[in-house]
């Protein structure tokens, strides 16, 4: 389990992370979601003892990183896939890491097999594609067989096959009972990968909840209606305070409404409907609205939900 408690990081006057508290539990993939610059990498670096918090702390199975007796056996991380000596082979790179951390060398071939790099184990890591480098980074994270894994944007720049592989691999690690914490700036990606989400914007917590709950709330709801009585229905819906756009003579788009609501309104006034369809706005657009600046967004997502003020600062 990973616990962030009141985590804050300032770089001079820049506040990268502010009073961030959340919990990451084992047995599922938890997505760490936020737009570029939201503070995900900074938070992950603090988790791994690579950056010192200005305030607050991170506990890994109840301890600070610096207190862990065998860090690599407790928590494995992929932060920067290109962090290898370019002239070393994949196997030599992992052997060097294993040796310096008291991990038996036989584990090297095990992890190379797990990530599908056994056939290229003796090739120069500097010549690896991004996808292969990511696999090597994951192999390094797995060397100590840790129960906790932290991956920073592992699918960035990968082709669909690479993305699919990493997604399935992370889900497999979680299914073994491990704690898997993975960052991304794409809600659509996290919706397919993670069961639980920690969402941040401008260094502050926006929500911690299940992915389903977040996605259900993130998409804007609208109802598309096609009807010979569109004009009358437009008037009725407007009278109820709904925002209605007419997209064609017989077609309306009614925002923040449900199909039940519009269907019943039409029935009450004996208006014939030819189509009644629920429409979802783009998930990414909704996500940017929720995490970006200059938005007023009220959410009741999860226990730790916060409310964004017009300046985008959570309170
Ligand atoms: N060493 C540093 N010195 C000054 N500012 C920094 C430093 N590291 C990060 N920042 C700033 O802190 C903020 C958070 O950055 P961070 O890299 O953690 O965000 P992120 O969510 O991981 O985004 P990205 O996906 O773009 O890396 C950004 O505004 C960034 O410019």
Automatic annotation (TrEMBL):
Organism whose genome encodes this protein: Saccharopolyspora thermophila
Keyword field: ATP-binding, Nucleotide-binding, Transport
Organism superkingdom: Bacteria
Domain ABC transporter span(s) in chain numbering: 2-227
The family this protein is said to belong to: Belongs to the ABC transporter superfamily.
Record bears the keyword Nucleotide-binding: yes
GO molecular function, one term: ATP hydrolysis activity
Pfam families for this protein: ABC_tran
Record-linked Gene3D superfamilies: P-loop containing nucleotide triphosphate hydrolases (3.40.50.300)
Name by which UniProt lists this protein: ABC transporter ATP-binding protein
């Amino acid at each position: 389990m990973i616990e962030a408690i009141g985590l804050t990081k300032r770089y001079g006057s820049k506040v990268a992370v502010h009073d961030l508290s959340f919990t990451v539990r084992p047995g599922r993939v938890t997505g760490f979601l936020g737009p570029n610059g939201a503070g995900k990498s900074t938070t992950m670096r603090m988790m791994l003892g690579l950056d010192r918090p200005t305030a607050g702390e991170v506990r890994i199975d109840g301890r600070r990183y610096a207190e862990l007796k065998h860090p690599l056996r407790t928590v494995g991380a992929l932060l920067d896939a290109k962090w290898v000596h370019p002239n070393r082979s994949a196997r030599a790179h992992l052997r060097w890491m294993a040796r310096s951390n008291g991990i038996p060398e036989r584990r090297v071939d095990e992890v190379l097999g797990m990530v599908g790099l056994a056939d290229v184990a003796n090739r120069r890591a500097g010549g690896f594609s991004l996808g292969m480098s990511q696999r090597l980074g994951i192999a390094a994270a797995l060397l100590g067989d840790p129960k906790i894994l932290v991956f920073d944007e592992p699918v960035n720049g990968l082709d669909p096959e690479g993305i699919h592989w990493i997604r399935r691999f992370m889900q497999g690690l979680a299914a073994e009972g491990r704690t898997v914490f993975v960052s991304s700036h794409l809600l659509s990606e996290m919706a397919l990968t993670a069961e639980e989400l920690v969402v941040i914007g401008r260094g502050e917590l926006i929500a911690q909840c299940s992915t389903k709950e977040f996605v259900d709330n993130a998409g804007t709801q609208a109802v598309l209606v096609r009807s010979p009585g569109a004009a009358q229905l437009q008037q009725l819906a407007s009278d109820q305070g709904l925002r209605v756009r007419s997209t064609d003579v017989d077609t309306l788009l009614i925002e923040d409404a449900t199909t039940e609501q519009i269907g019943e309104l039409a029935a009450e006034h004996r208006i014939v409907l030819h189509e009644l369809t629920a429409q979802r706005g783009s998930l990414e657009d909704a996500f940017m609205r929720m995490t970006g600046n200059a938005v007023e967004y009220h959410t009741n997502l999860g226990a730790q939900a916060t409310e964004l003020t017009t300046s985008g600062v959570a309170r």
